[in-house]
């Protein structure tokens, strides 16, 4: 197989890991904190997760663990959208398993969760994994978005796990996939099965995070890839001085990607969906805001600029949110009728007829392409496929129309030419940055150690990430701690809560302090391509979001006990208190 020189060079890269993970796996145990609680809806979640609700936070600490050397079989699934570093999670998991016992096996289920339902799998061997170390993509075993939800799917998953004598299943996925991991862990316990389930936080969107999961893997590489491209486009814009570039950035719901790219490239405008929602801004308000900046720049003779648009914006504009919620309910309850109609006008008319008067007015004000895009299939988790809705083009159409009006009224004198871009898939399978390569390998290795310590219903966690890997802390966070109830497919379902941009958080505040200056004075930054070799400040810097959000790791919980230790917590053992 022909490979690029960079791929060859990256095979030789040795990921940096927390010092504890370099020790013999039999000398690593866990220390447990106090029982935990879910974010909200605690009573309901306790009833749903009877066996796995409220488990304590686990931290890896030095200590004997003879079970780590047992010969075991572990299954692994890559779930959802690609994110750079997935191969390194598998490499770390593989190396951990083999360090425990060279006779242990790692089984990779093919094409996402459907692989375990249908028992389509391969054994991951040293030869195979070595070809994928430090590379992007999920192609080692492929990924998919199937949700394990029906009784038959659960039963097939259990049958596969039993047939393959799996001690544990590792699910590498985003919020929905880790929700699946939590549900599966509970299902196995309910059935009296000892099969363990461990999740790994993956998604370029950066919205699977909390105090204990500081970032999801892939975010670092994706935002650096997009920022490189935005910086290049911005430089082009400032050279030619003739286009306004509207750049939609991936990120299904949260605007973390857009915000981080703004901090890295200093565009004229970056919309943040969470702010739009908080301020109750209408589509008209957003268009007015963009046009006001275009007009002010035109007064200075600058008929060019950069507008960053988060992919999920459309679902955060209050009138659009209401409209989409109504469409979702109609599609959930009247799907047969809807599907029997020819795609296009007939389906648009059918939906229109079912909407409330308010939403109908909004729906009919949209261009036909956007109407059709809003009706496209939901993904298996009930999400609107926002990557297929051309919000950047919708904004361009509305901005162009408004600028015409402003010109007629004499409040705009410039010229408006535009280009539209969508940056998404370009960043999902890039070679992982050193950060993601290190983080992912550590997450995978930690997943094995959580298994070796008997845990189930946990997500692998590496903390203190804004510091060098030598100061990282590895452990596991109970999945139920990250859950709440949300409406999906017209029903209340337990799901891991998406972490949206915190409008009181430092990344957003830093952006707000600078954005008015960036709007009018061209101040673009060109971060350039991700570097893998060279000085720390060019090849080992975490994202600005991570650095700005970094908090000192909290002190030890008094009640924490190293598992198997009768002496309680030694002063050296680091155990986190659950969030109050
Ligand atoms: P995950 O949440 O599964 O990581 O996927 C995130 C994402 O990349 C979103 O940013 C985007 O909206 C979506 O996947 C696109 O999905 P698809 O790959 O199915 O087109």
Short descriptors:
580 residues; alpha/beta; binds 1,6-di-O-phosphono-beta-D-fructofuranose; 14% strand; Rossmann fold; ten-stranded mixed beta sheet; single chain
Structure commentary:
With 580 residues, the protein is of the alpha/beta class. It has 2 domains: 284 residues, Rossmann fold (3-Layer(aba) Sandwich), CATH 3.40.50; 206 residues, Rossmann fold. Helix content is 41%, strand content 14%. The protein has 22 helices and 16 strands. It has a 10-stranded mixed β-sheet, with helices on both faces. The protein has a 4-stranded parallel β-sheet with strand order 9-10-8-11, with helices on both faces. Helix 3 links the parallel strand 3 and strand 4. Helix 12 crosses helix 15. The protein is globular and about 80 Å long. Bound molecules: 1,6-di-O-phosphono-beta-D-fructofuranose. The site of 1,6-di-O-phosphono-beta-D-fructofuranose has 14 residues, from loops.
């Amino acid at each position: 197989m022909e490979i690029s020189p960079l791929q060859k060079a990256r095979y030789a890269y040795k990921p940096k890991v927390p010092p504890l993970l370099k020790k013999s796996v039999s000398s690593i145990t866990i220390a447990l904190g106090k029982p935990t609680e879910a974010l909200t809806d605690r009573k309901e979640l306790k009833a749903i997760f009877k066996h796995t609700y409220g488990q304590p936070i686990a931290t890896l600490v030095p200590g004997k663990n003879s079970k780590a050397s047992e010969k075991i079989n572990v299954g692994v699934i890559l779930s959802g959208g690609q994110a750079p570093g997935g191969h390194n999670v598998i490499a770390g998991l593989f190396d951990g398993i083999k360090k425990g016992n060279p006779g242990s096996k790692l089984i990779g289920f093919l094409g996402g969760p459907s692989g375990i339902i249908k028992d389509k799998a391969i054994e991951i061997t040293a030869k195979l994994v070595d070809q994928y170390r430090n590379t992007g993509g999920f192609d080692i075993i492929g990924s998919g978005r199937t949700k394990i939800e029906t009784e038959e799917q659960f039963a097939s998953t259990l049958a596969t796990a039993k047939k393959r004598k799996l001690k544990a299943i590792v699910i590498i996925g985003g919020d929905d996939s880790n929700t699946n991991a939590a549900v599966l862990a509970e299902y196995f316990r309910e059935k009296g099965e000892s099969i363990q389930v461990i999740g790994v936080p993956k998604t370029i969107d950066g919205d699977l995070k909390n105090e204990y999961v500081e970032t999801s893997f892939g975010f670092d590489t994706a935002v650096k890839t997009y920022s490189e491209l935005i910086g290049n486009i911005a430089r082009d814009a400032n050279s030619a001085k003739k286009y306004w570039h509207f750049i939609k950035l991936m990120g299904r719901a949260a605007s973390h990607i857009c915000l981080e790219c703004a901090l890295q490239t200093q565009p004229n405008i970056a919309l943040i969906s969470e702010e739009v929602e908080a301020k109750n801004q209408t589509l008209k308000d957003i268009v007015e805001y963009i046009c006001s900046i275009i007009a002010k720049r035109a007064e200075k003779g600058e008929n060019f600029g950069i507008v960053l648009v988060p992919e999920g914006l459309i679902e955060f504009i209050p009138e659009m949110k209401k409209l989409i919620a109504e469409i979702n309910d109609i599609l959930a309850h009247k799907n047969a009728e809807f599907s029997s109609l020819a795609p296009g006008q007939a389906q648009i008319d059918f939906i229109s007829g079912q909407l409330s008067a308010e939403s109908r007015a909004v729906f009919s004000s949209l261009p036909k392409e956007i109407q059709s895009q809003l009706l496209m299939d939901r993904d298996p988790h009930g999400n609107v496929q926002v990557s297929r809705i051309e919000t950047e083009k919708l904004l361009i159409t509305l901005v162009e129309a408004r600028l015409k009006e402003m010109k007629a009224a004499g409040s705009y004198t410039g010229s408006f030419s535009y280009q539209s871009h969508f940056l998404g898939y370009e960043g999902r399978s890039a070679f992982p940055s050193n950060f993601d390569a290190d983080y992912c390998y550590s997450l995978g290795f930690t997943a094995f150690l959580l298994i070796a310590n008997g845990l189930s219903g946990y997500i692998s966690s590496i903390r203190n990430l804004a510091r060098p890997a030598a100061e990282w802390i590895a452990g596991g966070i109970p999945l139920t701690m990250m859950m709440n109830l949300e409406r999906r497919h017209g029903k209340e379902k337990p799901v891991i809560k998406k972490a949206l941009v915190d409008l009181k958080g430092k990344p957003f505040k830093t952006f707000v302090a600078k954005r008015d200056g960036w709007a009018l004075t061209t101040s673009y930054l060109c971060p350039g391509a991700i570097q893998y070799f060279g000085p720390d400040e060019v090849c080992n810097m975490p994202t600005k979001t991570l650095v700005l959000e970094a908090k000192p790791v909290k002190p030890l919980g008094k009640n924490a006990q190293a598992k198997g230790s009768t002496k309680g917590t030694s002063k050296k053992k680091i155990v986190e208190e659950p969030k109050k």
